């Protein structure tokens, strides 16, 4: 009898079998993944965005290995922790105070705690269909959950969380008129886990203004988008001025680490005992070494070229499908985007729900797998590119999509 519940520890990692065969990964490096059957695939899932430098960047592996050899869990303050915090802080402007935890979900939890302490208010306003981790408070309203669709048009709420409609400023204004107890608005730079729904021009600025007017904080959940568009938070690239930012995934190159960066006056609560911070593995030496070496590499990374390469791929995919008589569109940015079986991408969650075609997305995943290309199989899935996606990987992606488009056309005609 197998012992691992459902065969995997995180539900999002399940893939459908191809011709009766499971895909089991044995190794990953750069843009590549090798499976148990010895096949090499070009990867676009990239540890759910955890590896913007590509899998197993040698410098990070070396730094983390050295930290491991020096002892992975000394219990007391260790030499690498302040260095890693400084490496993050130098990329975050006024958010100069940093705390490390091991997962993005914990970072969100900590940021919400900080906001409640700083404001004396208790309620967090989060986006319906936004994904801010899987802990109880904020798992409410994730994409696919019944409440994310605002059933009956009433605002879904728990004792601690209220949902907001993404890209709807009036709805945010209404919330503040209804509720005096909002500690923070919690929002991603785009609703990545609902298929890369991008904010309308001025939307995030309007949220920031409303939060400030009503004595609430703006928390940007950049666990996914931080260090994706520049070496730092995406929100700051766009001129926003959040109070707290959560970072994860890209900052550790695949090693379990996440961080909260915040204004000193807010983060002080964790130093003076008003807020609990803990975690056996929080800020451990291996995680900190991975962060410090990743930051050094990202400082030298050529983001404009990566984003342009991704935008060219997006155009190429749309053209390949059009050539096969199938309308598709993309949403998101050059190195993290979603593919939609529609002429234009959705603007909000209601449109995304209408455009979602899980069978189509699964069929695309399988058609691409035959071509040695790995994409997430779900309709709200994303394609990530890394700095390690070289000409060979990009050509394989373009060729794979062109062939998959033809296979999907032929399957539909059969
Ligand atoms: C925007 C966002 N926030 C939070 C999380 C939770 O991070 P973790 O899976 O590391 O707990 C994720 C994970 O996908 C995410 O995409």
Structure overview:
The protein is of the alpha/beta class. It has two domains: 5-53 and 301-413, Alpha-Beta Complex (Aspartate Aminotransferase, domain 1); 58-299, Type I PLP-dependent aspartate aminotransferase-like (Major domain) (Aspartate Aminotransferase, domain 2), CATH 3.40.640. It is built from 14 helices and 14 strands. The protein has helices at residues 46-49, 58-69, 80-89, 104-119, 136-139, 169-178, 203-213, 234-237, 264-271, 285-299, 303-323, 349-355, 358-370, 391-413; strands at residues 25-29, 32-35, 40-43, 97-101, 123-127, 161-164, 182-187, 217-222, 244-247, 258-262, 329-333, 336-340, 373-374, 383-384. A seven-stranded mixed sheet has the order 4-10-9-8-7-5-6, sandwiched between helices. The model has no long low-confidence stretch (mean pLDDT 97). The protein binds pyridoxal-5'-phosphate (PLP). Residues 48, 103-105, 108, 131-133, 188, 192-193, 221, 223-224, 248, 258 line the site of pyridoxal-5'-phosphate. Pyridoxal-5'-phosphate (PLP) binds next to helix 4.
The succession of helices and strands, N to C, reads EEEHHHEHEHEHEHEHEEHHHEEHHEEH
The chain-level mean pLDDT equals 97
Total domains, how many? 2
Radius of gyration equals 21 Å
Helix content: 25-40%
**Counting H and I runs of at least 4 residues, what is the number of helices?**
14
Proportion of β residues?
5-15%
Strand neighbour order, sheet with most strands: 4-10-9-8-7-5-6
The CATH topology assignment of the largest domain is Aspartate Aminotransferase, domain 2
**What is the CATH class designation of the largest domain?**
Alpha Beta
Name every ligand kind in the structure.
Answer: pyridoxal-5'-phosphate
CATH architecture of the largest domain: 3-Layer(aba) Sandwich
Largest sheet: 7 strands, mixed
C-alpha termini separation: 40 Å
Low-confidence runs of at least 5 consecutive residues: none
CATH H level of the largest domain: which superfamily?
Type I PLP-dependent aspartate aminotransferase-like (Major domain)
How many individual β-strands? 14
- Helix-strand makeup class: alpha/beta
